[in-house]
Amino acid sequence: MSEDGLEVEWTPPSEYRIEIGTEPLDRPARNSVGGWPYFDDGQEWPRCFCGERMALFFQLDLPEDIEFFGGEHLSVFHCAHHNEASDPVTADGRLVPRFWEAPQPPFPGSFWRVLLQRDPGIPEAEPEPAVRALPLTLRPAKDTYFKVGGTASWVQYPEYYRCACGAELAFVCQVPENWAFGVSPGAPVQPYSIRDDAYLLFLGNEVYLLACPQRCDPAAVFPVNQN
């Protein structure tokens, strides 16, 4: 209902299905599984608490009509050597400051990093070595599960988190349960994966990426896990 008492039709938020191509990439692409990551000036390739560089699982440019985050570049990293469900660390009803670096039991630090960057320019000179580089395509769609935008399709119950800055996190992206990312020959075998030639995100849980709409930090994105 509008302020003048007229009925206003609700418009669902824009939603896009993420499709993975089959032809390997041989050059940088902003929408990709694996491949050459793009970073804002000053942003470095994330490293796990163990010191190893995290693997780039996928990256993409969010369409302009995605609420809060349209036009930004989403990148999802996860250590190939450590694999566990994500664990929200909260205090006083909020995620702790720099929650993306907080301990993730049983580990003493974080093994994942999700970035939402405003203006990544030149790609890295070398591609992600472990995850096989493939193109991504975004297509408008509804009621899909590997997607950006729209609303989360919760497996269990909705989860809500407040950023350390005070803003309520907003839904960005969903990755289906047991979604396998192919790896290159000779890549390290990921613990608890379904196959030696594939990596999973967070033990293969359904993953919901929730981000700070105030953009208090490019890394202020929390991966909620459900199964």
TrEMBL record:
Name used for this protein in its record: DUF1963 domain-containing protein
Species in which this protein is naturally found: Streptomyces toyocaensis
Lineage, top ranks: Bacteria, Bacillati, Actinomycetota, Actinomycetes, Kitasatosporales
